[in-house]
Amino acid sequence: MKSTATSSPSDLVLVGHVLDAQGIRGLVKIKPYSKEPLALFSAPLVWLSKPPALADLARPMVVKTAKEHSGQILLGLEDINDRDQALAIKGMAVYVSRADFPEEEDDSFYWVDLIGLSVINEQGQTLGLVVDLMDNGAQSILCVRLEGQKEDRLIPFIESVIKSVNKDANDPERQIVVDWQLDW
Question: How far apart are alpha carbons 148 and 151 in whole angstroms?
Fold first, then answer.
């Protein structure tokens, strides 16, 4: 399999894993970790590694085709031309460079960009850092942890609670401002 670079970019994001081969022409079925896996449709390269390998050990693969099929993504990858080659990468973790993600629409965010942001309330009190996000079906939920605490504070990521989001990496005021109290 061709490798187009010697090291992985530093901005790789885990977006899914190779579930299986599809057909006899080398298509691979990807189980995406997002309901809207737009990055898999726009990326010219995906990076593959065997779990639990880290992203920095992943190898690049050129994407020839990408399409949705029954909740999974079918990828055609350069140098994967038959079912046996596709089966050889079954189970591998799939990464995409964050730089290859499509631009977000107004008032929408990629979860990966929110992780690590400081969360404060409108009174200026620090609630913690975003350590994870989850989806309960009705909305996304920020999992916020205050340093030294074991329990996460769960804050709904909805318009009535989220007052502003500044994810600009060049701004020292990177944070999420919420209408949420310390004792909630």
Answer: 9
Cα distances (angstroms) measured from residue 74 to each of 14, 25, 69, 92, 95: 17, 12, 7, 14, 15
Q: Which structural domains are found in the chain, ordered by start?
A: 12-100 (2.40.30.60), 111-178 (2.30.30.240)
Candidates 74, 63, 4; CA nearest to 32 is 74
- Alpha-carbon separation of residue 61 from 45, 57, 151 (angstroms): 5, 13, 39
Tell whether pTM > 0.85.
no
13: phi then psi, degrees, rounded to nearest 5: -125, 130
Whose CA is closest to 157, among 107, 116, 122?
107
State the Cα–Cα distance between residues 91 and 138, nearest whole angstrom.
30
Helix (H) / strand (E) containing 132: strand 126-135
Query: Which CA distances in Å does 86 have to 1, 138, 149?
Result: 11, 36, 44
pLDDT single digits (tens) 62-109: 999 999 999 899 999 999 999 999 999 999 999 999 999 988 887 788
